[in-house]
UniProtKB/TrEMBL annotation:
Pfam families recorded: HATPase_c, HisKA, PAS_7, Response_reg, SSF
Modified residues (4-aspartylphosphate): 1092
Entry GO CC: plasma membrane
Domain of life per record: Bacteria
Reactions the enzyme catalyzes: ATP + protein L-histidine = ADP + protein N-phospho-L-histidine
Gene3D superfamilies: 1.10.287.130, 3.40.50.2300, Histidine kinase-like ATPase, C-terminal domain (3.30.565.10), PAS domain (3.30.450.20), Sodium/glucose cotransporter (1.20.1730.10)
SUPFAM superfamilies: ATPase domain of HSP90 chaperone/DNA topoisomerase II/histidine kinase, CheY-like, Homodimeric domain of signal transducing histidine kinase, PYP-like sensor domain (PAS domain)
GO terms (BP aspect): sodium ion transport
Full protein name: histidine kinase
Transmembrane residue ranges: 6-24, 36-55, 67-86, 115-136, 156-174, 195-214, 234-253, 274-294, 320-349, 370-392, 404-425, 432-455
């Protein structure tokens, strides 16, 4: 890849970063991002995941399966379970206005500069190699991505990119002098950077799992085969890295700055308690596929490092965009780490090392704004830090292990942790103990960790390792006191932490803590309690000296805002020449500490409070700033007066004109010579009375009266009505130092409005009375209308109830009468069937059967309508296979269609629906039957289609069609269209049954039709996925002779005779019983029992229904299992279900011969 493409990517990314940062600092950016600040804060903490995340953790995971886990587990555990520690750090940092970890510890330990210097030194030694590691990540990425022909360009590009990073750091983080204030733009850009890092890792992981591996299963196989995450034991090194990384998240300069200094709300910290560990978890999971893929390539003999692999994988599929994305991810991670690390380190070096020295020199007395000097110093320090890191990179870190460098930095910075934790929770910890602990811990760290490394590089004699110094064996660096640790890092942390804590505890216990130290300890241990500072008991300076000192660092405008806030918060007025209060001195110190750090702020205040005289140039500078502020205030006041609607005149304590505005001059047009500063109020009043419409007797008396009133200095309010009708509201208010502010407001329009309201009020009572009378009349009319409507509604409800009762009576009558109606019809059908067995060719018999069939269909339809009208509960639906149902419909109507010369087309399908099989079949039968009846030529189509999660069943025909206005009519009872009468016989109940069944099943029906073109009936049915309901068979193949002994039990002799005649014709031996007693008289059990359900004719019978009688007969025949068929004219589904539960066949009257023979075959032969 061309290095120039990389340079363009770097420049564009840096410009975007700067743009986002600037937008975030704008008012719009701050307002829009305010709701998501907890998420911004949590993502900003992910600056912890630097370039180390992309290279070192992958390398560690491929060499040691669990090596990368503690690096993320430690910080995650700290945020999950160490929340009280973090919360206390944030609270104390905000109360003390600390700007860095060095400033934090210095404030805790008596605000000793030495503590800050020692902490800064430790952090510098740890952070500069860490910054060098990030530069190494960037340079390695550039070198790996550059082709051989561009190698020289890549070397130049390395220097260019490092220069860009340096300039970027200087520009971005040194725009503001205050280091304790929340940086909206920077944190927004850092949080977006965290999302970019995470997105790059996730995309690479997904690419590896689904593209690099042919199948995700290969990835899981590699996890097993290369033993990733397979290690069962957790050694001491694992625990040590968790502890070290957890401590580093507290005190590492960039992490302390983000977590404590940039935390502007505890709500943000509470959100980060779970968001930041979640971020680390996702990062850790992305490492797994990358490590697995790297192991696969390594075992295939490519020998590729993890750094090269991260950027090489996209080349496998020639995905240039992914390569650029990974480079941006690596670069962004390193960039943000370098920016924040250099910023925090430069703040510590400037505030704690350089600034106190600068304040002692002549530079501190420069009359110009001192803040620019501080900013310039920080910029130079940043440049120096990057230069040192670059030199370290060239000298020591060319081929260094990033993981080792990171852990060395973490172990050194860990020496600050005891001082922090002891300072937060142990009141006796003092500066002497902190000095001893940190110095002792660092010395042990150097001896146990760095000395073996230096010996490994040949810089020290190897005898130190084997014999110890001066041949003292128990002082050997790798086996201190004869110890045997598995891991050098564990050995180092154990003894350095032991020495650190022991010395801090012991020295603090035996030394005396100063008063300042005790006060600061109380402020840190109990940050919620207010602790008065007794260092400043009798200051020998004035308030204006402190204000001037503060202004030299932050500017006059900022100091003015701070003083205003202070006065409002304490309800006082700060006087320049007064002696400052202790609270005000502490206020100034906090503001200075936010700019230059606590240590430098304390030094400056001690120098100022020593009582020395101010330098002349400082006095000149102060009064110069004061005069500018006064001039500015005058401009603001003048602009305010000129832009208000009321006239304003200001009189001083001597009643002379001091100020006025343009509106006042318009109301009182005084001559130019009169209207000037210093004109007496007496002259103004006299001129006004002489030139106005005053009608008093003596003008001088009126003047004296008004002057006497003004001289009292009391507030007043008068209303003046001028001759032209103008009304003025005059209000006077005294000024605290004497004088009056008089305002003149034109309230003419307001007075006119009041007059109009008064006139309107006078007419209001009359209008109200008239309106009340109208309302009373309207109420009377309305009550009369309501009564009439109530009477009409009562009549309608009565008529509706009568109609409903009539409909219920009709349905009840038909249901109850069905038995008596169907009994004779049933007998006639059975006789007809018996005759047809012997005289099948007789035309008269055929006509008789047709007539009976028509009568049966009519009565069955009427009964079915009655039954549907009486059903109130939902249908019991089942899974129905449409293809089988369609096939049975085709078998049933194909002959009828063929006889009319029509084509019946039934499209096969594989759909299942949720419905009642028999009811749905009846609907389709009626629709297909009507289509064939009313079609002269062409054909009929039955088809099922998918639509919107359901199935629609459509019946198409090319028949006569239906007019649009007649479509609703065809579903009414006994309705037939005039043009259809001659096409087919009928009474107009078929579609009425279809409508009722569809409503019962909740299957909507739609009709589309054109006259002389054809019609389409469509029923919508919910789709199902399985079938459990076989369709009822219509055709059963039987043998010619049955030769069975059958007992028929029925209380109707006509039905018995008809059944006997039919069954005898089939070769059966038939016995009959008109009552239960006659059935019990049968000594031998028959082959088949045909029994009527209703046996109520014989009141003496113990059993009054067929099902109960069947059970008794089973016992009577000594348990012999006799198959039975129950016949009934009752349309009650409960009877059918009860018969099925006893495994009894069921037939409804009137009985069809073919159905009876099929049921006999099924009951006796199982066919």
């Amino acid at each position: 890849m061309s290095p120039w493409l990389l340079l363009i990517s770097v420049v564009l990314y840096i410009l975007c970063f700067i743009g986002i940062s600037l937008w975030g600092d704008s008012r719009t950016g701050r307002q829009l991002t305010k709701p998501i600040r907890p998420f911004i804060y949590s993502l900003s903490l992910a600056v912890y995941c630097s370039g180390w995340t992309f290279y070192s953790t992958v390398t560690a995971s491929t060499n040691d399966e669990l090596a990368f886990i503690p690096l993320y587990l430690g910080p995650a555990l700290m945020f999950l379970f160490g929340h009280p520690i973090l919360s206390k750090i944030v609270t104390v940092a905000k109360k003390q206005n600390t700007t860095s970890i060095a400033d934090f510890l210095s404030s805790r330990y008596s605000k000793k500069r030495g503590i800050a210097l020692l902490t800064t030194l430790i952090c510098s030694v740890a952070v500069i190699p860490y910054i060098a590691s990030q530069l190494t990540v960037v340079t390695q990425s550039i070198r790996l991505l550059s082709s051989a022909q561009h190698l020289n360009d890549s070397n130049f590009l390395n220097l260019a990119v490092i220069t860009l990073i340096t300039l970027f750091s200087i520009i971005l983080v040194t725009r503001k002098i205050e280091t304790h204030r929340y940086r909206h733009g920077l944190m927004l850009a850092v949080s977006l950077n965290s999302l970019i890092k995470l997105g790059a890792l996730i995309i690479l992981a997904i690419y590896i799992v689904f593209v690099f591996y042919a199948q995700p299963s290969q990835f899981t196989n590699d996890l097993v085969s290369y033993q990733i995450l397979s290690r069962q034991d957790i050694d001491s090194g694992f625990i040590t890295q968790i502890i070290v990384s957890a401590g580093a998240i507290l005190v590492f300069p960039k992490q302390f700055h983000v977590s404590a200094v940039e935390c502007n709300s505890h709500r943000n910290l509470r959100s980060a308690r779970w968001l930041f560990p979640l971020y680390l978890l996702v990062v850790g999971l992305t490492i797994l596929p990358i490590a697995a893929a790297h192991n696969r390539i390594f075992h295939e003999g490519l020998g590729m490092t993890a750094e090269a692999f991260m950027l090489f994988v996209p080349h496998i599929g020639d995905h240039m965009w992914l390569t650029v994305l990974m480079f941006i991810g690596v670069f962004s991670a390193s960039l943000v780490m370098v920016v924040l690390a250099t910023f925090t380190l430069s703040t510590m070096i400037t505030n704690d090392a350089l600034l106190p020295t600068m304040l002692k020199g002549r530079l501190s007395r420069d009359k110009h704004f001192f803040g620019t000097k501080i900013l310039m110093t920080r910029r130079v320090v940043i440049l120096f830090i990057v230069l040192l890191a670059w030199l370290y990179n060239l000298s020591f870190n060319q081929d260094g292990d990033l993981t080792t460098n990171g852990l060395i930095a973490f172990s050194l910075i860990f020496q600050v942790v005891p001082a922090m934790l002891f300072g937060l929770y142990w009141r006796k910890a003092n500066a002497f103990g902190a000095y001893a602990g940190m110095i002792g811990g660092c010395l042990v760290w150097f001896w146990t960790l760095m000395v073996p490394i230096l010996i490994g590089h040949g810089w020290l004699a190897e005898t130190l390792l084997t014999n110890g110094p001066f041949s003292i064996n128990w002082l050997r660096p790798e086996h201190l006191f004869g110890s045997r640790f598995e891991d050098p890092l564990t050995h180092c942390i154990f003894f350095s932490l032991l020495a650190n804590c022991f010395l801090l505890f012991q020295i603090s216990s035996v030394t005396k803590t100063t008063l300042t130290g005790r006060l600061q300890a109380a402020a840190f241990i109990l940050p919620s309690h207010h602790s008065h500072d007794t260092r400043y008991q009798k200051p020998n300076i004035k308030t204006n000296e402190l204000v001037n000192l503060l202004a030299r660092f932050s500017g006059d405008a900022q100091v003015k805002n701070w003083l205003t806030d202070y006065e409002l918060a304490h309800n006082i007025h700060v006087l320049n020449n007064a002696e400052p209060s202790i609270d005000f001195i502490r206020f100034v110190e906090r503001k200075l500490a936010g700019i230059v750090g606590a240590n430098s702020a304390r030094a400056m205040l001690q120098s100022t409070l020593s009582g020395r005289d101010m330098y002349l140039e400082e006095v000149v500078s102060f009064f110069d700033a004061t005069s500018k502020a006064i001039h500015f205030n005058q401009q603001v006041l003048s602009s305010t007066l000129e832009n208000i609607d009321s006239g304003v005149a200001v009189m001083d304590r001597h009643l002379k004109l001091a100020a006025w505005n343009k509106t006042y001059l318009e109301m009182y047009p005084y001559p130019t010579e009169k209207l000037k500063v210093g004109t007496a109020a007496e002259d103004l009043i006299r001129h006004h009375l002489i030139n106005s419409d005053f009608h008093g007797a003596d003008i001088e008396d009126e003047i004296n009266k008004r002057l006497k009133y003004l001289s009292t200095g009391s507030a007043f309010n008068f209303i003046r009505v001028r001759k032209n009708g103008q009304v003025l509201d005059m209000r006077g208010n005294p000024i605290p130092d004497g004088g009056l502010v008089i305002t003149f407001s034109d309230i003419t329009e307001h007075v006119q409005t009041q007059e109009a309201l008064k006139q309107s009020k006078q007419n209001l009572e009359q209008r109200v009375a008239e309106r009340t009378a109208q309302i009373d009349q309207m109420n009377k009319d309305l009550r009369a209308e309501i009564k009439e409507r109530e009477r009409a509604q009562t009549l309608l409800l009565e008529a509706k109830n009568e109609a409903e009762q009539a409909n219920k009576s009709k349905s009840r009558f038909l249901a109850l009468a069905s038995h008596d109606i169907l009994q004779p019809l049933n007998a006639a059908r059975l006789y007809s069937a018996a005759l047809h067995e012997n005289y099948s060719e007789d035309a008269t018999l055929t006509k008789l059967e047709s007539a009976l069939r028509s009568t049966e269909e009519l009565i069955s339809t009427l009964l079915e309508i009655a039954k549907l009208d009486g059903i109130s509960k939902d249908a019991l639906k089942e899974n129905v296979e449409l293809n089988s149902l369609f096939n049975s419909i085709a078998d049933e109507f194909s002959a009828q269609a063929k006889n009319k010369g029509l084509r019946l087309i039934v499209r096969p399908n594989n759909y299942f629906v949720k419905s009642e099989a028999r009811s749905l079949r009846r609907v389709i039968q009626n629709l297909v039957s009507n289509a064939i009846k009313y079609t002269r030529n062409g054909g009929v189509l039955l088809v099922a289609r998918k639509r919107q999660g359901g199935i629609v069943i459509q019946v198409w025909d090319s028949g006569l069609g239906i007019a649009e206005e007649d479509i609703k009519q065809i579903f009414e009872d006994f309705q037939r269209l005039d043009q259809h009468h001659h096409e087919a016989e009928g009474v107009g109940l078929g579609l009425a049954v279809v409508s009722r069944i569809s409503q019962h099943l909740n299957h909507p029906i739609e009709v589309k039709s054109k006259v002389n073109k054809g019609s389409m009936f469509e029923i919508s049915v919910p789709e199902s996925t399985a079938t459990n309901s076989p369709l009822p068979a219509e055709v059963v193949h039987t043998a010619h002779q049955l030769a069975l002994n059958i007992l028929v039990v029925d209380d109707d002799s006509r039905n018995i005779d008809a059944l006997k005649t039919l069954l005898t014709g089939w070769g059966c031996q038939v016995s009959t019983a008109l009552s239960a007693q006659q059935a019990f008289d049968q000594s031998e059990a028959p082959d088949l029992l045909i029994i009527d359900y209703d046996l109520t004719k014989d009141k003496r019978d113990k059993q009054n229904n067929g099902l109960a009688l069947y059970s008794e007969l089973q016992q009577h025949w000594q348990g012999k299992k006799v198959p039975a068929i129950l016949v009934t004219a009752h349309p009650d589904l409960a009877i059918k279900q009860a018969a099925e539960e006893q495994n009894i066949g069921y037939l409804s009257k009137p009985i069809k011969a073919i159905a009876l023979r099929a049921m006999i075959n099924a009951s006796v032969y199982g066919r």
